[in-house]
Amino acid sequence: MGMKRMRCGRRLVFCMLLGLMLTCSGCATLGTRIPDKTAETVHPEQVAESDAVQPEAALPAEKKSAAPEPLPVPPKQVRTTDAAVTVDTPPKPVSRPDKWRRKAVTENRELYDPSAGMPRAKAAAKGDGLVLNFDQADLHDVVRTIADMLGINYLIDKPISGRVTIQTAEKIPPSELFGVFVQILEANKLALVRDGELYRIVQAKSATRMPLSARLGRGTLKGEAKRGFMIQLIPLKYVSPQEMTKLITPFASETGSLIAHEGSRTLVVVDTWHSIQKILKLVSVFDVDVFQNLNYKFYPLAAAEAEETAKILAKIYAMEGVKTAAIQFIPITRINTILVLGGNADHFRLVDTLVKELDQNLGRTEPRIYVYSVKNGEASELSDLLTNVFTKNSKAEKKTSKRAAADPPKKAGGDAAKPKLFPKEKKARKTQQVGGGNISSISGASTLKGEIRITPDTIRNVLIVEATPSDYKIVERILNRIDVMPRQVLIEVIIADIRLDDASNLGVEWEYDSESKDGDGIITAKVGEAGVTYKIGISDNLDADLSAFAQNKQVNILSSPKLLASDNKEAKINVSTEIPVASSEYRYDKDNSDVLETNIQYRDTGVILSVTPHINERGMVSMDISQEVSDSAGSVMVAGKSYPSFSSRNVSTTLTVKDGQTIVIGGMMSDSDEVSDLGVPFLSRIPFFGFFFGKNSRTTAKTELIILIRPKVIVNLDDVDDVTREFSDRVGTVFPKSVTPLSTGGASTAETP
């Protein structure tokens, strides 16, 4: 107790002596608050530095007086040390002129000039540092003291309050003092915003609305430590801004904010310089190419199934505690392969062993059910074809649906083999009810390891296959080769009647032109002396071959259809009129009356064309052609009754031509009598006297029916589009300009006159 009293007494005496010295010298004065609006702000550069004085503490509040008054220095709060000496003595009093006095600014905002309050701290020499020691100091005083040491001008928007306790055991380099200042403000929910040469101390929640400086890029900030609160635009390359926001938010300061802009893949950060520095380092760590250090390997499977094997591998690694993100197993079912992704190359050595063992063991499992979706053909046809491929005994190629549902399918060489996965009898009945197709049982082939069951579902056009994984791979390879887009043929036909008269000698003369350039035998037609010679097969447009005759009204084009037919499929076009014909009569008595019933059938008369194309690998097209041109020929009397009669010209043939070559079928002639009456109007119709004013003429006309056919093979859908576009151009006057005709293939296209 005695020692403490002695220390207190010494301190009291020391303070009294110090106050007396300052009072006498009159140098430690503070400016008074002047209420006028012509406030003067004095910057730190205007103040001369003291050679041996360092800031010790925040000064007390000013006294309102017209003249400066001496003020004692409070107890030390800041010590400035160098490498050899620690300065603990109070600063020497320095007198200041009145023009250096600190002025006040009205409107509840105080502008503090640190140089006016106390001498600015001299920059420490190399190796020097600062030691801060505040114990429950007033926040306002701490701000003023550190701002004076930094030599900055600042403005406090609103009064601040709080207590600060900070003790630094080691020296703080002067370059880091600004960061400490910002952290002190953050701890009190304040923010420092630079506005030109002035720093504004505002509430943290309102800092984002202030005019902040902005910066774009991902480089580290250099020489910008005194910017305080700022905006940093960080462009992202690999990680989405939304995901990056989730990763960075825990590391941002409480006063900062993060905004994710997905459109430009940019992360907007509003925070202090120190927090932005930390965020930039984190972004450089997270925003990297995930494939840069990624290892991968494909594992094709011979017998096992890729999807099941991938699940087993994932379970094995999960049991060992390996995280899902560390290694991933992706099954590629189409090629029965597993893609393994991982960052650690050591994992692949174990995967190699596991995949090899699983592929051997899982390949010996029981048969499984597979569903194959038919893309181009028909399920029933593919089922029959596969049956013929794998079945040795031709008698067991096909079974009817009824028998398949009643009896269990048998092997080609013996009794039915009962599978372990599902009973075949029940599955056969169920599939037949759904699809309505035939069920084929295939076994015994040398390329297969077990029995295969193929059930076509004609409603959904799918094949249900029961087989082991290795056997199904064989079936799938065959299906991929035969289930392809069928070839098609565009068949252009012109059916025309050529009228023969006295100027046409013996009809149309056909001759062979051996001087054709391609040597294929171009057919030339000549019609008498007045006719126009034309060559079939030279023009791409068949209509042009007969246009000269049509101008002289010597040719009547009955029809010019265009058919798009699939290979080995019949295409038929019918432009006709149905005429009723009595097929039979039946007479009976009803209610004592004679009743006559007549059965009527309708007959098509007109142009009927049926073509079945067959395309071989050399590009030759064989066609089965059936052509009929018929018309009503009046009526005839049979047994006292009138019956309709018909004139018909038919041709049926099979021929083979090259792709794009035109062939002609002709020589079918017919005769017709035409009766015409000529005379003076009205007078020629007077009974008994009309023949004096007119005449009757009877003309016998002879016509020849010719058929021009040109096939064009359609290889792909682009050819279909070209053909459809050509057809739409020819009938462009029919379609409005705003309407685009369909250009999809697969359907027949017909053109009628």
Strand and helix layout:
Elements: H1 2-25, E1 78-81, E2 86-87, E3 110-112, H2 114-117, E4 129-138, H3 139-150, E5 153-156, E6 163-167, H4 177-187, E7 190-195, E8 198-203, E9 214-216, E10 229-235, H5 241-248, E11 257-261, E12 266-272, H6 273-286, E13 295-300, H7 306-319, E14 327-332, E15 337-342, H8 347-362, E16 368-373, H9 379-390, H10 401-406, H11 424-435, E17 440-442, E18 452-457, E19 462-467, H12 469-482, E20 488-500, E21 509-513, E22 522-526, E23 534-536, H13 542-545, H14 547-551, E24 555-559, E25 562-566, E26 571-589, E27 594-615, E28 620-638, E29 641-658, E30 663-679, E31 694-714, H15 717-730
Parallel strand pairs: 5-8, 9-10
Antiparallel strand pairs: 1-2, 1-4, 3-5, 4-6, 7-8, 10-12, 11-12, 13-15, 14-15, 16-19, 17-18, 18-19, 20-24, 20-25, 20-31, 21-22, 22-23, 26-27, 27-28, 28-29, 30-31
How many strands in all? Answer: 31
Compute the average pLDDT: 68
Structural class, by secondary structure, is: alpha+beta
Instruction: Give the overall silhouette.
Output: elongated
Q: Spans with pLDDT under 50 lasting ≥5 residues?
A: 25-127, 393-446, 502-545, 738-753
What's the helical proportion of residues? Answer: 10-25%
Count of separate DSSP helical elements: 15
Give Rg in angstroms.
Answer: 53 Å
Quote the beta fraction. Answer: 25-35%
> Could you give the distance between the termini?
130 Å
The biggest sheet, with number of strands, parallel, antiparallel or mixed sense and barrel status, is: 5 strands, antiparallel
